[in-house]
Design goal:
By secondary structure, the chain is mostly helical. It has 17 helices and no strands. It has two domains: 185 residues, Growth Hormone, Chain: A; 193 residues, Growth Hormone, Chain: A.
Length: 408
């Protein structure tokens, strides 16, 4: 039947103008996992203020507070591969639920413990519970969608996580000004609420469902997969550069360029807003690109953005560098998680995702220390030029990756 008044072409134009049209057709279960991630991240309040809490509320020195934050980093590193393997063994959904409920409970415990040793132990356990969510969620999403839908699914997951993170730390800052203990109650409650979302939702996650093969118990360990190991090694240099925004970039802006502290928050907000508005259409535009094209392109934008900091002396120039490395992030990270999903065996996808997320934790742990030491020793200009050069190493290595589904 012919549409009256050109209704069909009009709807087609609307769909083309919709920047989030690439998310259409994703299964309800993927949206449910992303909703749980959003709720959980929207309550992320304790971690950004953990060092401040340790010093102001628990009376610890700066060095001891540093050890507490380090304990969280170590817990995260250990949790990623462990949770990934557990997701392969018992299924991703139980790991997701236990992660959220345990994380919420441990935040409540963390608010009441006293003493340096107790704070270290509970923080370590809390980190393990919290970061068990990421590899299990990556594995779950990769099992829920067809290969051609994986990149949009991972993009939606990043969108939900970043939207949540745009709320949590900002709200936490307001609450911390009144009562630190409130941060723990809200953080823990949102973790429990996210766990409840996954507990009551009728999710059906079947390993290998869309891979043309059932999961095989005898599939080789990712530790024996040279393609995955090469990819992780190739990715590490640009991750070390990317995570300079956690410590070295704020220090450079305030100490070297004499920016007010508020400018740091504005620039990081620029990063988040770009992700929320641009990443979905960008992911749709690059959905069919080969890994050997999309991965080095993302790394190149990130390397260029951080390297250009050597020449950025005013707010507009610094904002331009943030735009560059944000484009790199939006191209590289959905592409890299898709690559791991497509090249890992269905029966070992959780373990592969565990190794993948562990590489992020490793970089996030090493990069701030490495960056601040290098900047103090060589100066800001040399440091940022060096960061750009290190990122270019990933560009070169990632241009040699080879993709393709792996079913056994």
């Amino acid at each position: 039947m012919t549409e009256v008044g050109g209704a069909a072409p009009a709807r087609s134009r609307v769909r083309r103008l919709n920047p989030w049209r690439g998310l259409g057709g994703l299964p309800r279960d993927v949206w449910t996992i992303c909703l749980a991630s959003f709720v959980n991240r929207a309550g992320t309040m304790v971690l950004p203020f953990l060092a401040l809490y340790a010093t102001q509320e628990r009376g610890l020195g700066a060095r001891q507070a540093g050890y507490v934050v380090t304990a969280f980093g170590l817990g995260s590193l250990i949790a990623s591969p462990f949770a990934g393997r557990l997701a392969d063994a018992v299924g991703a959904l139980p790991v997701l639920r236990v992660s959220l409920f345990a994380s919420g409970a441990l935040v409540f415990v963390l608010a009441s413990v006293h003493g340096f040793a107790a704070l270290i132990v509970v923080t370590f356990l809390w980190a393990m519970a919290t970061d068990a969510f990421r590899p299990a969620s990556f594995a779950a999403i990769s099992h829920l969608v067809t290969p051609e839908k994986r990149k949009p699914a991972f993009t939606l997951y990043r969108l939900a996580a970043n939207a949540g993170m745009s709320i949590g730390p900002a709200a936490g800052g307001l609450l911390a000004a009144h009562a630190f203990r409130t941060l723990f109650w809200v953080d823990g409650a949102t973790s429990l609420l996210a766990g409840l979302v996954l507990a009551i939702a009728p999710l059906h996650i079947q390993a290998g469902k869309h891979d043309g093969a059932t999961a095989q118990a005898h599939a080789a360990s990712p530790l024996r997969d040279p393609r995955l190991l090469y990819f992780l090694v190739a990715l590490l240099p640009i991750l070390l550069v990317f995570f300079q925004h956690n410590a070295t970039l704020p220090l450079h802006l305030v100490r070297t360029l004499s920016f007010p502290a508020s400018a740091v928050g504005f620039l990081l907000t620029l990063n988040t807003v770009m992700i929320l508005l641009v990443e979905v259409p960008l992911s749709t535009a690059t959905a069919k690109w080969r890994p050997s094209r999309v991965l080095p392109l993302g790394a190149a934008f990130a390397a260029l953005g951080y390297g250009a900091m050597a020449f950025a002396n005013d707010a507009l120039a610094v904002a331009a560098t943030v735009v560059l490395w944000t484009f790199g992030e939006m191209i590289l990270f959905p592409g890299s998680s898709t690559y791991v999903a497509e090249t890992s065996a269905p029966a070992r996808r959780g373990a592969a995702m565990g190794m993948y997320t562990m590489s992020f934790g490793l970089a996030a742990t090493i990069a701030p220390w490495l960056g601040t030491q290098a900047m103090d020793r060589y100066g800001a200009t040399a440091f940022w030029l060096g960061a750009g050069a290190v990122g270019c190493l990933s560009v070169l290595l990632l241009s040699r990756v080879r993709g393709g589904p792996k079913t056994s």
